[in-house]
Automatic annotation (TrEMBL), chain A:
Species in which this protein is naturally found: Homoserinibacter gongjuensis
Gene3D superfamilies, alphabetized: P-loop containing nucleotide triphosphate hydrolases
PROSITE patterns: ABC_TRANSPORTER_1, ABC_TRANSPORTER_2
Domain ABC transporter: residue ranges: 11-246, 263-506
One family name in Pfam for this protein: ABC_tran
Molecular function in Gene Ontology: ATP binding
SUPFAM superfamilies according to UniProt: P-loop containing nucleoside triphosphate hydrolases
Source species, domain of life: Bacteria
Name listed for the protein in its UniProt record: Sugar ABC transporter ATP-binding protein
UniProtKB/TrEMBL annotation, chain B:
The keyword Transmembrane is annotated on this UniProt entry: yes
Protein name: ABC transporter permease
Main location: membrane
Record membrane topology: Multi-pass membrane protein
Pfam families given in the database record: BPD_transp_2
Annotated compartments: Cell membrane
Record keywords: Cell membrane, Membrane, Transmembrane, Transmembrane helix
Transmembrane segments: 27-48, 68-98, 110-132, 181-204, 233-258, 270-300, 312-333
Tagged with keyword Cell cycle: no
Amino acid sequence: MSTAKEARAIVEMRGITIEFPGVKALDGVDLTLRGGEVHTLMGENGAGKSTLIKALTGVYAIDGGSIIVEGTPREFRGTADAQLAGISTVYQEVNLCTNLSVGENVMLGHEVRGPLGINWAATHREAARHLENLGVRLDTRSMLSAHSIAVQQLVAISRAMVTDSRVLVLDEPTSSLDRGEVDQLFGVIRGLRDRGVAILFVTHFLDQVYEISDRLTVLRNGTLVGEYPVEDLPRGQLISKMIGRELDELDAISQSAARAIDRTSDPVIRATGVGRRGVLHPADVEVYDGEVVGLAGLLGSGRTELVRLLYGADRADAGRVEVRGRTARITNPRHAIDRRIAFSSEDRRAEGLVGDLTVAENIVLGIQAKRGALRKVRKSEQDTIVEEYIQALGVRPANPNALVRNLSGGNQQKVLLARWLATAPQLIILDEPTRGIDVGAKADIQRKVAELSEQGLAVVFISSELEEVIRIAQRIVVMRDRRKIGELTSHDIGVDDLVAFIADEQPQPDSPESAA
Amino acid sequence: MTSVQAPLEKADAFGPLKRFVSRRASWIPVFAALALLILIFIAGQAYFGNFLTPRVISALLLDNAYLFILAVGMTFVILTGGIDLSVGAVMAFTGMFGASLLRDGVPSGIVVPVMLLLGAAFGLAIGVLVQYFDVQPFIASLAAMFAARGLAFMVSLDSIKVETPEILWLQSTRIQGAPGSFYITPTGIIALLVVLVAALVLAYTRFGRTIYAIGGNEQSARLMGLPVVRSKLLAYVVSGVCAGLAGVVFTAYTGASYPLNGMGTELDTIAAVVIGGTLLLGGSGFVVGSMIGVFVYGTIKTAISFMGADQSWTRISVGLLLLLFVVVQRIIVARSDRR
């Protein structure tokens, strides 16, 4: 990776301070972006990354400090100002219009115009040229909605390049891409870097940080920790700098996972041959008291499908389920809730939380739903429960009246977890509870899961991060192609073993030893 | 730069149909409306025998000229994801106000612009409420509807006859080839011009494209640096001006203004726009579609009067059609969401 140490600084942000009512979101932060360099901004959720980006892109006005672009001090009053200064942004949730064509999305606001209005032929030609500059060939007249998120991401980058941007800000562009798509995106990013564009990159994936970055800036709690060339900051140090504490905690979690589980009594849940035609081949799963069972496999391997059947969110058409040794018919979530089974969905925004309600209301919602609408949870009782879980899970801000939609992803996840825990479940199913959240919040959630399982809670834990699954689970159920392909005990395997097992071309359904 | 021609998209694998769908999906509802219109024409002709005559078709345009104009304005607003319930009342009010001015001898060269400006003012007021005070378009335009209706009664409780020749000329002049063949009135020409201009504005100007972008994703449009605030305000102003113009045309059509004119017209307009394939969520639709929607509406009305049945059957059929089209739209949206 080329580190042009003496590369020209295109953007210098000095002593940036931004205050929101009651909070200093950023306190005297510096950031320097140099041409031909990929600069990654690291920090936990709430560290001030998004705030800093929004200051750079003109979404927020700064309360202190200066932004100097190519030697000229600038003051941004809106995104349009920043774009004029050559700073473009591609946001995490692709901010394009899916109802318009690809070409139009690239060119919107910069269409080629003739005397009779927009010249569409020329506009599409221009769009195609910009896309091809990034090595992307698309039918520019097709609707954007016809393309995958990855392609939309590239379209967004092309759009940024239309204005000849010298600075490209990529705010978590990879969070919904698969590996191949990430590679393509990185190819494009490297191409732009080599053309002298300064790139500011934000991600939660540490692997990607080391794959693409030339330089890192670490933030914590709205202050600058430091700026480092990537080769001077190995992974462990980076994490310590981000979370401001050592990694012993993660070791403690692994310790917890190594506990022996008592499998002599009836399991909390035992599913035998549970499946659904076209969705999941019949599979067996058991979870005992105090046990964490990990579900590993690629996206679409049937992990989510399996737990949805267990929870009754989808109806199984084969197999049977026993809860504590007694046959249970779970055909809708109500049945599952009645049997004290909780399910935290992977799509926390759409299926889990109510963004316009407060933290407290979201937490109480679960208990209220369980009790039925007529038996109100007393206010004092609510306050106690809410206070307890905000403390226990470390929800930030620790304000029960904050609206959930204003919380960061990690904190939203904590609220969702709190909501389910407040219903005192005997089994909790967590589908990707740590996706898209930062290292610190991840550690908090893993720690809490370990703690709860030690107290006897049974947990099903789904995660795409195999490291996490191995750390936290006692047993791992491996899925592939909508089929359970085996079970592993986690304490004697590493990520490589698990990967090998998932990728194994010869399915060996009942021989978990093969990978150990 | 390094070429990363990864097989992300198999462009050549697109069949002509798939390619058409990927490019022109938003036109499908418009074609559906057109097919429906043709079907009604054919059915009417088969049933009555004398349905598809130049007289009937010319009358369609004449009788519904005001509705075409309203539908165009409504299309702008609905494309942004909003709604304008005030158009019927604004049409009535501008009509009443204009008629009273004409009665007092104010020349029509002043009265007509005043009517348009009044409409624009109502549109602007709704837009400001929506944009700066974060009032839902439904409520903001409902308030404007009550205000305009009340003002119409303030002008006069009774109908005001209009005798100004220039205004009546708009209606009475028939540009016609041979007797008995197709004809068109100036009001019809105005309606068609409005449709044409609006279609061009939406397709070929940045303002028009911004309207679509706002309807698609307002947040994105803002982050793309598009003039969201200005365009949204302007969309309501366009609808207001159209309501004012409809006031002129409707006054000419009836030869008088009556404060109860246009009761429920806003709903007819919305129905026509939706039947014409414009998504109520915004971001997808065409004025040409709205024009077809008005034709569908007008044709049903004509067919029912041919039958001699009660006009409540128009409402019933339009209601059923609306339901059908909204369901179809839901399916289309649901399908594209699943990607």
